[in-house]
Amino acid sequence: MNRRTDQNTETRNPSMKNVIRLKPAAHDMGLLLLRVTLGGLFVFHGGAKISGGIDGFAGYLASLGVPFPLLNAYLAAGTEIVAGVAVALGLLTRLASLPLAFTMGVAFFLAKGGQLSAQGGGGEYPLALGLVAVALVLTGPGRFNLTDPLLRLITRESSVKQNTLHAVTA
Hints:
By secondary structure, the protein is mainly α. It is built from seven helices and no strands.
């Protein structure tokens, strides 16, 4: 929608003005809800792999023919926990979503054989989680995230140090 269309809509229907104003906030709230849910699910599943006995998960990976099953079990669980927390907090969301999407791609194609049949233990769950992670790579975290304030803090501290250094050396 362009500005001219927005003005015409507001003129014809003044109540639409409030809906149009809410749209950016709703978009960011939707991304926040998506991030917190996705990140929480990954933390839960990664934690379950660790607390449920990583050897059992490693044995499952070995039965699938995954090389170095214990190492890969720890990598998968660790990725789910660390990247899940980062996604939930909106900390480097795009970067953190990549390994989650990869992990779910492996789960979908290797563990579930690319099948979508829920009755046959299909892969709709890892596929859905992986695609949501890809969507976050594409959209980013939205306005409510920790990356932006941390970058502002780092930039401000860096400029203060440069100004101090410049004042001392001038």
